[in-house]
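Board notes (copied after class):
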Amino acid sequence: MTKSANPYQERVAREVNNIISPVVAELGFELVEVIFRRESQGNVLRVVIFSDTGIGVDDCALVSREISRILDVEERIDQAYHLEVSSPGLDRPLETARDFSRYKGRQVRVVLNGTYEEVIAVIAEVDGDKVFLTNDQGQQVVLLSQLNSAKLVIGF
């Protein structure tokens, strides 16, 4: 997935996504998102990776080195930029079926469109655009298009 502010940034993010996706997979990680945008410190290329076993600083450094090598050769970004590689983070909104699949079995807080009803439940299953949630009231099927927001419930 790519997210950027303008057509140029979106094109760069899409091209970078296509170039680095196989390399990130070869390193044993899932490429979650590539964002290219202007921030206060200048242009930032943000690459978000995921692994079922977790992401550590060494993982981010490894992916960053490999991506840097590829992008230096490919020369798809014609402006100075800062590369950031990170994990999705526990407070990241869940937006796609893949986001929900990644956290199957975990508790999530969803807010539904229109009613703004808040539901706290466990992600039981994901099938296409349907998310099956289970809580004390039983199972509820929610379409991704019905979600206003969704985040993991983080317990301490």
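Comment from the instructor: Residues 7-26 form the longest helix (20 residues). The mean pLDDT is 91.
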